[in-house]
Amino acid sequence: MTTTTAQHAAGQAVRPTVRVVLVDDETLVRVGLRLILGAEPAIEVVGEASDGVDALDVVRRTSPDVVLMDIRMPRLDGLAATEQLLATQPDARVVILTTFDTDEMVLGALRLGAAGFLLKDTPPAEIVRHVLDAGAGRTTLSPSVTDRLIASVTQRPRDERRTAARECLDQLTDRERDVARAIGRGLSNAEIASELFITVATVKTHISRILEKMPAENRTHIAICVHEAGDV
């Protein structure tokens, strides 16, 4: 994220700017998103792409904080583009924005490392909030998507789920559990670092170790495990 020269010159409180790339094969959708996000001073749209192939090039040239990615597009769909993008730029925050929210798409996107999954009927103000959250390092999901994700991991009896979750957390060191609990509360890496008096780099190291020890593929799964264990 960047800050504006005007803010520095005026001596105002510096507010980070979230740089965003829009990826959608429908021109009207991109125009609408640009208008919605452009009204927020803390967001700057730095590029657009009409398919996954162009998206990889635009993201490489602009290095955005957040990529709003459609799924169904010509040449290279959003899931394939997300996988390729994160393989080369793991710090990018990809938020899937689509009309479809099937279980396969939701779980597939999150397994690939997407930072969020939103539906196109999400109110404009909520889209802005989700983009800002993603830019701050938080995972962001539409309510209906959250319900689907929870349903996918809650098919076992509650007691069995809690036992399994606690067994996963028992594998962690005390500090790793602190980080996992903070993720469960929705804190970003920077917020975790501040709360635990450690560096962001150390937070990332702890998260990598947590992912190695737990049957989790991203921080969303870590958060679910913490909640299942009743350890928030």
Descriptive report:
The relative contact order is 0.10. A six-stranded parallel sheet has the order 2-1-3-4-5-6, sandwiched between helices. It contains twelve helices and six strands. With 232 residues, it is of the alpha/beta class. The longest helix is centred in the C-terminal third of the chain and has 14 residues. Strand 4, helix 5 and strand 5 form a beta-alpha-beta unit.
Q: Report the radius of gyration as a whole number of Å.
A: 18 Å
Would you identify the regions where 5 or more consecutive residues have pLDDT less than 50?
4-14
What percentage of residues falls in helices of 4 or more residues? 55-70%
Number of helices: 12
State the total count of DSSP E strands: 6
Strand order of the largest sheet: 2-1-3-4-5-6
> Structural class, from helix and strand content?
alpha/beta
Q: What is the overall silhouette? A: globular
Mean pLDDT: 83
Terminal CA distance reads 29 Å
Q: Let me know the largest β-sheet.
A: 6 strands, parallel
Q: Give the SSE order as H and E letters.
A: HEHEHEHEHEHEHHHHHH
Strand coverage percent: 5-15%
